[in-house]
TrEMBL record:
Homodimer. This is Acetylornithine aminotransferase. Its cofactor is pyridoxal 5'-phosphate. It is found in: Cytoplasm. Pathway: Amino-acid biosynthesis; L-arginine biosynthesis; N(2)-acetyl-L-ornithine from L-glutamate: step 4/4.
Length: 397
């Protein structure tokens, strides 16, 4: 067995350099804790970037995977797959949706949504309806299509020409959105709460106003809930707290409690726009991942996880508010459920490194925003332990 230094040396030789990685070599996880190959333990307040909402290796997810793995790993989507059907039923029963297309990631779910809005709008309104309006500071994925949808120039640099048909407006500005609509517009795609963009909450009434505007102009509304869906904000889906329903929603990250999965959920009205042969995915909705998805969704709905998320979220918010009072470089604390951002007036990268050394995993987005994404099963004691580590780091600044 190699130690961390040996693994990192090997990684440097053959792993793509697409990530600036921290010097942590992960070995195993349980609940909110992660251990590296040297046996050091970390409190995980990143949770695989909102994937491990049920903590690491939740026993129900592990059991579902083990049982399904012994039964059937893969079969083509040319055939019907019971676990896929059951997961679709759960998702539709608990959302606005009627239909589910399964894929393997958030970017793929958004690709599916962009194909659907173009296809439906062409059929319903004619050739020139193809443009999608998204928000500045949004994040929708890393594929050639989703970097065009993402409202951040930096993700596109060097990959031009950019796929045409996207416009960006400031998140939260209904007037800018109205002004951006043209005869070519077919849809608006938003994260109900922006994750990568720095935990940006929608102003009160904004998403409702977006819904009304879409209805007025005959546009489809897509919510990208890849990061904030599946319980993260304290309700099963983030849109529920806004009193607004989209036409299409994309999910991925936490949907299967760890394993890779993506899903696009949509209304019956659009079902014929994606008929046989128009879209597909070899692995999408495979038995293994959808079995995990059933276990993850059932656990989320039945085991008090959402209640815990709301209660611990309130506690986390309270404790983070103390940091704002105590440290002049803390500009703002904002969030909902268990996604919180602490905006600093200084760079956050070193703070993250210091926390890692002391056994706390956090992340910093947009340079200055520390992001807290603990598993939704986190306890008060774990929050205290994490924030004591962070406090120790902040005190030395
Ligand atoms: C992570 C993320 C994606 C991309 O998901 P991948 O599985 O990495 O392709 C898309 N949208 C949002 C809001 C995300 O947070």
């Amino acid at each position: 067995m190699n130690n961390s230094a040996q693994w990192i040396e090997r990684a440097d030789r053959h792993i793509a350099r697409t990530y600036g990685r921290y010097p942590l070599v992960a070995a195993r996880g349980k609940g909110c804790r992660l251990w590296d190959v040297d046996g050091k333990s970390y409190l995980d307040f990143l949770a695989g970037v909102a994937v491990n909402n049920l903590g690491h290796c939740h026993p129900k997810v592990v059991k579902a995977l083990q049982e399904q793995a012994a039964q059937l790993l893969h079969v083509s989507n040319y055939f019907h797959i019971p676990a896929q059907i059951e997961l679709a039923e759960i998702l539709c029963r608990h959302s606005f949706g009627d239909r589910v297309f399964f894929c393997n990631s958030g970017a793929e779910a958004n690709e599916a949504a962009m194909k659907l809005v173009r296809k439906y709008s062409r059929e319903a309104h004619g050739e020139n309806r193809f443009e999608v309006i998204t928000a500045l500071a949004s994040f929708h994925g890393r594929t050639i299509g989703t970097i065009a949808a993402t409202g951040q120039d930096k993700v596109r640099v060097g990959f031009e020409p950019v796929v045409p048909g996207f416009k960006y407006v400031p998140f939260g500005d209904i007037h800018a959105l109205r002004a951006a609509i043209s005869p070519n517009t077919c849809a608006v795609m938003l994260e109900p709460v922006q994750g990568e963009g720095g935990v940006n909450l929608p102003p009160a009434g904004y998403l409702q106003a977006v819904r009304e505007l879409c209805d007025e102009k005959g546009l489809l509304l897509v919510f990208d809930e890849v990061q904030v869906g599946c319980g993260r904000t304290g309700s099963l889906f983030a849109y529920e707290q806004e009193g607004v329903e989209p036409d299409i929603m994309t999910l991925a990250k936490a949907l299967a409690g760890g394993p890779p999965i993506g899903a696009m959920i949509y209304r019956e009205k659009f079902v014929d726009s994606l008929g046989p042969g128009t879209h597909g995915s070899t692995f999408g909705g495979n038995p293994l991942m959808t079995a995990a998805g059933i276990a993850a969704m059932t656990t989320l709905l039945e085991d008090g996880v959402l209640d815990n998320c709301r209660a611990m979220g309130a506690y986390l918010a309270e404790r983070l508010a103390e940091f704002k009072k105590r440290y002049a470089f803390v500009v703002e604390v904002r969030g909902r459920g268990l996604i919180y951002g602490m905006e600093l007036s200084i760079e956050g990268g070193d703070i993250v490194k210091q926390c890692l050394e002391r056994g706390l995993l956090l992340n910093c987005t947009m340079g200055k925003i520390l992001r807290f994404l603990p598993p939704l099963i986190v306890t008060r004691e774990e929050i205290d332990e994490a924030l004591d580590i962070l406090d120790g780091v902040l005190r030395e600044i």
